Amino acid sequence: MTDSPRTTRVALAPDEAAELDRLAAAVAEHAEALEQARTALGRAAGRIAARYDRGGPAAVAVKVGWSRQHVSTLAAAHRAQTGTADGVEAA
Fold first, then answer.
1. Which of 8, 14, 18, 90 has the fewest CB atoms within 10 Å, i.e. the most exposed one?
2. Structure pTM?
3. What is residue 55's three-state secondary structure?
4. Where is 46: in which H helix or E strand?
C-alpha cells in the first residue's frame, strides 16, 4: 500500500482539451441537424401518405423503413393539422 494521495483526475494538455471541445461541439451540431432531418422526414412521410386513400402509408413505410402503423399515424396527424379528411380538402 502506498501513502501517496490517489490522483482522481489529471490535467489535460491544452491541445487535447481543445480537440475534445471541438469534437463535442461537432457532435452537438450534428445531433441538432439529425433531429431536424428526422422531423422533416416525418412530416413529408405524413403529407405524402395522406395524399392516398389506400396503400399510401404502406408504400411510404416501405420506402423509409418504418412500420405502416407509424406512417398511418403521421398521415392522420397531417390530416388533422391541415384540416383535410382522407386526403381531400375540406369544403
1. 8
2. 0.69
3. coil
4. helix 14-50
